[in-house]
Amino acid sequence: MYKAILYKEWLKIRWAVLGYIIVLLGFLTYIGLEVRYWFGMNDPISIWLMVIQKKILYYSAIKFLPVFAGIVLAVVQFVPEVVKKRYRLTFHLPISETRSLLFMTGICTGILLLFSVIYILGLTIIGGSFFPREITSSSLLTVAPWLLAGLVGYLGTAAIVIESSWIYRLAYALMFTPFIMKLFAESGYNEFQFSFGSYLLVSLFYTIIVLFPGYRLRKGSK
Amino acid sequence: MENVIECINLTHYYGKKLIYKDLNFTVEKGKIFGILGKNGTGKTTTINILMGFLRPTGGKCYVLGEESHNLNPQTRVKIGLLHEGHVCYEFMTVAQIEKFYSRFFPNWRKDLYFGLIDLLGVTYDHKISNMSCGQRSQVALGLIMAQDPELMILDDYSMGLDAGYRMLFIDYLIDYVRENNKTVFMTSHIIQDLEQIIDDTIIMGRQKILLQMPIKEFLGSFHQYHFNVNGRLPDLDYDDTVANWESLKNHYTVYSFKAEGDVKTYLENKGVSIKDFHETSMNLEHAFIGLTGKY
Fold first, then answer.
1. CA B173 – CA B283 distance, rounded (Å)
2. Is the domain of B206 the same as that of B232?
3. Helix extents (H) in chain B
4. For residue A114, what are the domain limits?
């Protein structure tokens, strides 16, 4: 049964997944070429000043890609479910609605993790090729909130898409948006070094929220 | 006789608006049951409650022995739902949707599904979103039949179908249901089609059930009488004799469950001078309108 749900979800999201991977690889290639250009055109001290003193993040071009991926994934996954009330088909399958909804969100969470692995791997390769290990590892800590924003963006968009009431939709938007904005609020590197764990814990709470609009749909809010 | 559906004192409100109160009905195993009613009488509400997508404000509704809004996932295996508009996963192809559903139902009958699809002359990689409404209805019916459920709940199967596809749908449905002793609970806006399908019916009026009986009994016991009067007849009351009535100038039509002689005597006792009193036969659609009124 779970294999069948995985199959259905894959049919919905596959083009978005492939499209995002291409875009991400494109951006990573661009960053790699850009950093190489820096080193070609500037002396190492200038680059050091840019990266360390001026806190210019050489990977800021991909700052919003994870949240963009999360939003797109939620839309392509759940819009087909709510159009023509197709969620009724899903909720009539011989599997509990909580499990099926958790599994469905779990699939995209897994895909977002896969995206994150590619993202981190790309940055590690680029950073490792041009910078000392400290800068590379700091870049990973700096992008961690951005990656988390991708997951929260996905959960928030999913809740908003699944929800049938505009008032609840607004409530979800108000609940998710400030948190996501906070995750992008850095003005340098490593700023979430000591607080990231707390943000991660709060994100777990958002995982449960997505079940609520599903429950409301199942029990007849629409 | 075993009841597949049993609704007891079913009551539903949308906000403060009462849809119906204390509705009671049962559906026996092996019967094709039609729910008829004008727009706004609560057909869709009842279907939604039976499908488990709406919790009734009051009363209980049992489907295969379980409360409809709290069905065990394993019970859902035994219930096939056809949603209004033949909703299905349109982003899938004919073959993909079969592959998907077959994993959920242990008695999956692939042959029934592809048998119906082959009639459409479409390839198995045909995307459902590119199909006509009629073709989609066959896909939806094929999937329910392949599921091999004990109970089929069909919400307005005729919506958007032309006469040919309606007939095709009915032919396959009847053949399948009779051959496999299935129970069906259905609605349709095309009442004339239901006449040849359903065994039992409930006809819903505003906030209540007007009648529940086998369709043959209804058509055999409900009469339409015509007559002319001199002058104007005083307004008739709705009572045991007059289920409904209508007039056009001095021509009157009375609908009643009483025999011709009884109705005639009833009218004469009202002091009405009637001429050309006669009965005309009715099909289900006429009888339905006769009972519920045109407005």
1. 21
2. no
3. 43-51, 73-76, 94-102, 110-120, 133-147, 163-180, 191-195, 215-221, 260-269, 284-292
4. 2-218
Per-residue pLDDT, averaged over B112-128, amounts to 87
pLDDT in tens, B155-189: 887 877 778 778 888 888 888 888 888 899 988 87
Is A7 within 8 Å of B88 when comparing Cβ atoms?
Answer: no
- The 10s digit of each residue's pLDDT in A1-50 is 899 999 999 999 999 999 999 999 999 999 999 988 888 888 888 888 88
* Residue A87 touches partner B, C-beta closer than 8 Å: no
Residue B96, SS3 per DSSP: helix
Query: Do B35 and B160 share a domain, yes or no?
Result: yes
Beta carbons of A77 and A104 less than 8 angstroms apart: yes
Backbone phi, psi, residue B210, to 5° = -80, -40
Using an 8 Å CB-CB cutoff, list chain A residues near B55: 219-220
Number of domains chain A is built from: 1
B83/A11 CB distance under 8 A: no
Q: Give the three-class secondary structure for A101.
A: helix
Both tokens of A128, joined, read: 């490792």
**Site of tokens 């002689």:** B261
Angle (nearest 5°) at CA A73 between A185 and A2: 130
Which DSSP symbol is given to B64? T
Flag whether pLDDT at B39 surpasses 50. yes
Closest-CA distance, A221 to chain B, in angstroms, reads: 8
**Taking CB atoms and an 8 Å cutoff, what residues of chain B touch A84?**
85, 87
Chain B interface includes A85 (CB < 8 A)? yes
B12, B84, B96, B104: which to substitute to probe chain A, counting the most A Cβ within 10 Å? B104
For residue B64, give every residue at least 6 positions away whose Cβ sits within 8 Å of its Cβ, in sequence order, or none.
B4, B71, B75, B78, B79, B150, B151
| Domain total in chain B | 2
Contact of A218 with chain B, judged by CB distance below 8 Å, is answered with: yes
For B22-37, the pLDDT digits (tens) are 888 899 888 899 988 8
Q: Based on the fold, state whether residues B197 and B246 are members of the same structural domain.
A: no
For B42, the domain range is 3-216
